[in-house]
Amino acid sequence: MCGIFGYTGKRVVVETVLQGLKRLEYRGYDSAGIAGLHGDQLLFCKQVGKIDTLQERVQSEGMVLDLAIAHTRWATHGKPSDVNAHPHFDASGKLALVHNGIIENEAELKQELKKKGIAFTTDTDTEVIAKLIGWFYEGDLLRALKTALPLLKGAFALAMIHEEHPGKLIAVARQSPLLIGVGKGETFLSSDANAFASYTREVIPLSEGEVAILTASSIQIFNASLEMIEKERHELDMEIAAPTKGSFAHYTLKEIFEQPQAARNALLSHCDEEQGVAIFPEFRVMPLDAEFIQRLLIIACGTSFHAGLIASYSIEEMARIPVTVEIASEFRYKQPLILPGTLVVAISQSGETADTLAAVRLVKAQGFKVIGLCNVQGSTLAREADETIFLKAGPEVGVCSTKAFTSQLTVLTLLSLFLARYREMSREEGQRFIKELYQLPNQIQRILDQSDEIERIAKKYAHLSEVFFIGRNLMYPAALEAALKLKEISYINANAYPGGELKHGPLALISPESLLVALTAHEPTFDKIQSNIQEVKARGAAVLAICYEGEKRLEARVEDQLFIPRTRGVLTPILTTVALQLFAYYIAKERGASIDQPRNLAKSVSVE
Ligand code: F6R
């Protein structure tokens, strides 16, 4: 997490850097700071809170800089506070540094530096880096880095400036994203190319311990051994429309309402209606040899993991291929056994989730090819995967994933169709499937059209402190996702269980103060989930059932019902999810929560 932005060039530096930083606020928003050089003077400003607050202060102080680095923080070491905000400084106060990532051996290094008489003023691991580099500095920054960097354990990206090196930005990246934007007479540095894409499309990504020394007109890059190297420049082909909320109160709500279009985009050019098959024209090199795929391994975190879980049901049902879904942060420490014939799919909205990337590297090191499913063009996953399918959902700004999730499900359903057609599914069945897929955008719209009713029901339950979700079959991972959404933006303790698991423990928690949300729109398990509803009602809890339109069997048995259009089973999680995203949103709104930027979270989890 954390966002880094740096700039040197002819523009108004403070304004350019803060504008860039705002585009990185999704990476963390506990505190923000800026440091720069004005002549040979190092100036800085940092404080707890969001970038707008920093901007007001910087403007009121009339800060003017010749070049600058800036940072938006998601706290890892040390609570969010003015003192822990970046930049941090070496003992001389001449070196200012901002950091994304985690230094795993910060305690030992701090101890060593303290023994040498160096005093620390913050609780951050970042201050250790600054003090360490400062300790080795004798006038040559590169030489100081050469000694200091090998002592740091962990994944990190750094940007720094030094009073004795006017005109220079210094950048370091080890397994954390940091990209150089090459302009005409100006140079940018950012954790995400999107933040400078409106100024330049020419990009050099740093990686594997590389160091860069940047001026407005020159770029020098060194490998981890600090030998000068040449790096290729890439042309960005991402869209650069700055996201706005439009008439919506929150980005999250806007993004929920963008889902019909996002589903259309995900389907676009992926269906051959005539043949009744899915196609993936974006694959550059790797043919998707469906005949040879014997099993799938899906790797992801959080909401993307839930998309993978749902897909495991649809792929197994439709294509009869076994699927394993792994949480990346667990998988990578497992010494995994991957069998020949495995197609590996890594799902990540941001393409920057550290654990997912580490899992991808592990899989690739074992000689397997990886398909990335990603929303952000130019992201690390898009660069490292052998092939990438882009969701084309447009930028997702709200920290909780909404439209990216349903787009992931749409694309994964296409993958199920693709694999199924190479197995037993007939062309006619494939054609029927595509017809149903094409109805998705309108069906999603029909749920959005019920937002007033969903808001009414949400208000009724917004005071609760605990909510249970149940589902069976692929509605169980849909329940997991619904619970995650609710807890994330409303801070209500929400948990999901497979319907059949309630009586193995969770029923003990049910009381007349509980709400059970039952995901019932799955015909094969309807009777069973109905019994689970009865068990919960017998303990006095209220029940909200998410049902297919026209469902009468539950009318007299539950307090509230929300209706979704009837569709094929494997598509139902998408529709159920949209209804429950709105439910979570309106509960959070009623509780006055910070919906777009929930406490303690960040959009891109680039630390392990
Ligand atoms: C929840 C949410 C997170 C992300 C997770 C993985 O709403 O957004 O759980 O899904 O951090 O992020 P990506 O998909 O970017 O790898």
Q: What is the compact description of this entry?
A:
With 608 residues, the protein is an alpha/beta fold. It has three domains: 3-235, 4-Layer Sandwich (Glutamine Phosphoribosylpyrophosphate, subunit 1, domain 1); 247-447, 3-Layer(aba) Sandwich (Rossmann fold); 450-600, Glucose-6-phosphate isomerase like protein, domain 1 (Rossmann fold, 3-Layer(aba) Sandwich).
List the helices and strands and how they pair.
Blueprint: E1 3-8, H1 13-22, E2 31-38, E3 41-48, H2 51-61, E4 67-73, E5 88-89, E6 95-103, H3 106-115, H4 126-136, H5 141-148, E7 154-162, E8 169-174, E9 178-182, E10 187-190, E11 202-206, E12 210-214, E13 219-222, E14 228-229, E15 234-235, H6 251-257, H7 259-267, E16 271-272, E17 277-278, E18 295-300, H8 302-319, E19 323-327, H9 328-331, E20 342-348, H10 354-365, E21 370-374, H11 380-384, E22 387-390, H12 403-422, H13 427-448, H14 451-461, E23 466-471, H15 475-490, E24 493-498, E25 515-519, H16 526-537, E26 542-548, E27 560-564, H17 572-590
Parallel strand pairs: 18-19, 18-20, 20-21, 21-22, 23-24, 23-25, 25-26, 26-27
Antiparallel strand pairs: 1-4, 1-10, 2-3, 2-4, 5-6, 6-7, 7-8, 8-12, 9-10, 9-11, 11-15, 12-13, 13-14, 16-17
Fructose -6-phosphate (F6R) binds near residues 302, 304, 350, 484 and 488.
